């Protein structure tokens, strides 16, 4: 079985789209607007981003991007810091080398190996 698509409600569609494209190589699909945007990954999974004022996610909700190496996790973290983002340092957690960051869409993103 393969995950086909996921829709997330976000306050900042453009900021979320740009974040996911810049740090996780997601590719845009179609013509984005400030109200909706579609992205795809290298496995063909589609992520829809829809504008929703006041969107809130439950405690612990997050999406994860598995990296091939701990070094790649560190590289993404360093790129975020260089861009002025405040992300906690990667650490060993639940058997993974990982860090979390609350993206412009308001949900947590986990970067892990």
TrEMBL record:
<dbReference type="InterPro" id="IPR051332">
    <property type="entry name" value="Fosfomycin_Res_Enzymes"/>
</dbReference>
<protein>
    <recommendedName>
        <fullName>VOC domain-containing protein</fullName>
    </recommendedName>
</protein>
<dbReference type="InterPro" id="IPR029068">
    <property type="entry name" value="Glyas_Bleomycin-R_OHBP_Dase"/>
</dbReference>
<dbReference type="InterPro" id="IPR004360">
    <property type="entry name" value="Glyas_Fos-R_dOase_dom"/>
</dbReference>
<dbReference type="Pfam" id="PF00903">
    <property type="entry name" value="Glyoxalase"/>
</dbReference>
<feature type="domain" description="VOC">
    <location>
        <begin position="2"/>
        <end position="113"/>
    </location>
</feature>
<dbReference type="InterPro" id="IPR037523">
    <property type="entry name" value="VOC_core"/>
</dbReference>
């Amino acid at each position: 079985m393969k995950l086909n698509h996921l829709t997330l409600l976000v306050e900042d569609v453009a900021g979320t789209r740009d974040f996911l494209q810049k740090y996780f190589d997601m590719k845009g699909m179609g013509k984005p607007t400030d109200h909706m945007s579609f992205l795809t990954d290298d496995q063909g999974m589609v992520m829809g981003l829809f504008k929703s004022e006041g969107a809130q996610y439950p405690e612990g909700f997050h999406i994860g991007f598995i990296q091939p190496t701990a070094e790649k996790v560190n590289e993404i973290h360093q790129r975020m810091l260089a861009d002025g983002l405040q992300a906690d340092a990667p650490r060993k957690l639940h058997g993974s080398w990982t860090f979390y960051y609350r993206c412009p869409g308001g949900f947590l993103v986990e970067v892990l190996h």
